[in-house]
Design goal:
Elements lengths: L2 E7 L2 E10 L4 E5 L10 H9 L3 E5 L16 H14 L5 E6 L1 H12 L5 E7 L18 H27 L1 H4 L6 H11 L4 H10 L5 H6 L4 E6 L21 E6 L6 H4 L1 H13 L1
Parallel strand pairs: 3-4, 3-5, 5-6, 6-7, 7-8
Antiparallel strand pairs: 1-2, 2-4
């Protein structure tokens, strides 16, 4: 299996698992929390059929990548991603991220620039800044995230269950856009993630991406559901058009956070049109 080494903790290398399929211009898919690269199955098939080279990878702490006790912050996540881009020598790439994955894209473009990147897609975006502060009144109270971490420390499996109920808006989608088996499949992936990483990623969600957002100089497509209960659209997606120089926001009425799965048809159509421009 292919890996890229991104660091070392004590006696062990820290490695990221990735998959690299197809040919043509590269598209890199960066997964959300607490999933892995396999969560893109509905988009991977579409992109391969359209003639793209498709790369997925597992963030440190998740999937088949190493699970160190360090590095669960966006500077490190983005350095990991930059190492992957460099090892594969990607150019003219399209970056597509979901949820946490939009953070790597935003910080990468803000910090490393767009020499290797042609455009980006942000699904259920985390930027620009989720934490409520005096100069960011649109954010979410810190107490919400403190409660998340307290629940993870007390009973991580219970937290993962609650998270996916919110991720999918199960009260509205179960039996319609979501099967019991699909919910369970996502849970089974999430529960295998690093316990340390699961806890520490909550702090990473509070990263201030405002400077990164303003520095992005490639076309961006943002797609978000209007009833996203994980990352409220008023705190995230709806703020981007006023901050990015070249962004289109598509709002999916009544859609939850879980767009790559529950709204794959709508998402794939929008991505296909964006890539064809």
């Amino acid at each position: 299996m292919p890996y890229v080494t991104v660091g070392r903790e004590n006696t062990a290398d820290i490695k990221l698992f990735y998959e690299d399929h197809g040919s043509g211009d590269p598209v890199v898919l960066i997964h959300g929390f607490p999933l892995n690269g396999a969560s893109w199955e509905k988009q991977t098939r579409m992109l391969l059929d359209a003639g793209y080279r498709v790369i997925t990878y597992d963030r440190r702490g998740f999937g088949q990548s190493s699970q160190p006790a360090i590095g669960y912050d966006y500077d490190t996540f983005t350095a990991d991603f930059a190492a992957l881009m460099e090892q594969l020598d990607l150019a003219n790439a399209t970056l597509i991220g979901h949820s946490m994955g939009t953070g790597e894209i935003t910080r990468y473009l803000g910090r490393y620039g767009s020499d290797r990147v042609r455009r980006a897609v942000l699904l259920s975006p985390l930027p620009p800044y989720l934490l409520k502060t005096d100069d960011n009144p649109e954010g979410v109270d810190r107490s919400v995230f403190t409660e998340f971490q307290e629940t993870i420390a007390r009973d991580r499996p219970f937290y993962i269950k609650l998270f996916f109920d919110t991720f999918f808006n199960v009260d509205e989608t179960l039996g319609k856009r979501l099967s019991d088996q699909a919910w369970l499949a996502h849970f089974n992936v999430g529960i295998t993630a690093s316990a340390t990483g699961t806890y520490q990623c909550v702090d990473a969600w509070l990263t201030d991406f405002r400077d990164d957002v303003r520095a992005i100089d490639v076309p961006v497509l943002a797609i978000q559901g209007t009833v996203d209960r994980v990352l409220p659209i008023d705190s995230t997606g709806r703020r981007l058009p006023g901050m990015m120089p070249d962004v289109e926001l598509i709002e999916l009425e009544g859609a939850p956070h879980s767009l790559p799965w529950t709204h794959a048809e709508e998402v794939n159509r929008a991505i296909g049109e964006f890539l064809a421009r």
